[in-house]
């Protein structure tokens, strides 16, 4: 397999942080710091911040994404936003299946699959999150869990559509805890995800798929994580809210 076939993607996931004014300020602060990045740079922001973030990012190399989307085009789904709505306003990326959605908002592998389908049908690029709980790692079923989540999410996704999918391996126990997976642990699971893509779609697809790591990635540990053969970037929570920290990760990814 050839790592040079893949691009590196560093994406921020702002979660439920920043008002529109704060979003404008943060994007404006990040912009000059990542202008000469040698990787793709994405900021996934709360729905309310999308317009402000897209406006601030205009003319820069920062792409804007949302943090979820619904599978229906429209209808009686109070509080939800459709993939079609996101596409219509010019959003490029969407995070789907984040563990916080699974843990706190009842998302299942099946709803994740439906949201992925809708996002692809509307031309959005998907950052699909998978990852095991601490107890699942302790029960030694990490690979089974991650394979199952990935397989179900990709049901019905064609090899051509896979070009618009990034998979983010995010061990739930490493999210927001300051506990990072070791570089070896991250690489092991990312490698297994790539092998699964190989089983499902063949070697060429496996070589090309971008598999990120997420979970307490920061300016201090990014170098080591991103140097791993199967780690093609990061999905960054806390550290994406501070421009210098996020920029340092982008810099590590640009080497
Ligand atoms: P932290 O970087 O804050 O651990 O969050 C990771 C994450 O969940 C990104 O989606």
Q: Which helices and strands occur, and which strands form pairs?
A:
Layout: E1 9-13, H1 20-34, E2 40-44, H2 50-57, E3 62-66, H3 83-89, E4 93-96, H4 99-104, H5 109-121, E5 125-130, H6 134-138, H7 142-153, E6 165-169, H8 183-201, H9 203-208, E7 210-214, H10 222-226, E8 233-236, H11 243-253
Parallel strand pairs: 1-2, 1-8, 2-3, 3-4, 4-5, 5-6, 6-7, 7-8
Helix pairs in contact: 1-2, 1-11, 5-7, 7-8
The protein binds 1,3-dihydroxyacetonephosphate (13P).
Residues 13, 98, 170, 175-176, 214-217, 235-239 line the site of 1,3-dihydroxyacetonephosphate.
Explain how this protein is built.
This protein has 255 residues and is α/β, with parallel strands linked by helices. The protein has eleven helices and eight strands. It has an eight-stranded parallel beta barrel, surrounded by six helices. The radius of gyration is 17 Å and the shape is globular. The site of 1,3-dihydroxyacetonephosphate has 14 residues, from strand 8.
């Amino acid at each position: 397999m050839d790592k040079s076939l893949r691009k590196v993607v560093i994406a921020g996931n702002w979660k439920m942080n920043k008002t529109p004014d704060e979003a404008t300020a943060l994007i404006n602060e990040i912009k000059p710091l990542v202008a000469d990045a040698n990787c793709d740079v994405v900021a996934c922001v709360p729905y309310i911040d999308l317009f402000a973030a897209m406006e601030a990012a205009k003319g820069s190399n920062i792409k804007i994404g949302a943090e979820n989307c619904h599978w229906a085009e429209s209808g009686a789904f109070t509080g939800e936003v459709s993939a079609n709505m996101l596409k219509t306003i010019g959003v490029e990326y969407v995070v789907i299946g984040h563990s916080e959605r699974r843990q706190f908002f009842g998302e299942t592998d099946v709803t994740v699959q439906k949201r992925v389908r809708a996002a692809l049908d509307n031309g959005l690029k998907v950052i699909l999150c998978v990852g095991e709980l601490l107890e699942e790692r302790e029960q030694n079923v990490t690979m089974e869990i991650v394979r199952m989540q990935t397989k179900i999410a990709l049901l019905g996704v064609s090899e051509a559509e896979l070009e618009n999918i990034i998979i983010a391996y995010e061990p739930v126990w490493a999210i927001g805890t300051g506990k990072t997976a070791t570089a070896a642990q991250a690489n092991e699971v990312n490698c297994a995800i790539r092998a699964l893509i190989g089983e499902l779609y063949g070697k060429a697809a496996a070589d090309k798929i971008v598999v990120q790591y997420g979970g307490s990635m920061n300016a201090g540990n990014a170098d080591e994580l991103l140097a791993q053969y199967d780690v093609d970037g990061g999905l960054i929570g806390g550290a994406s809210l501070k421009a210098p920290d996020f920029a340092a990760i982008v810099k590590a990814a640009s080497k």
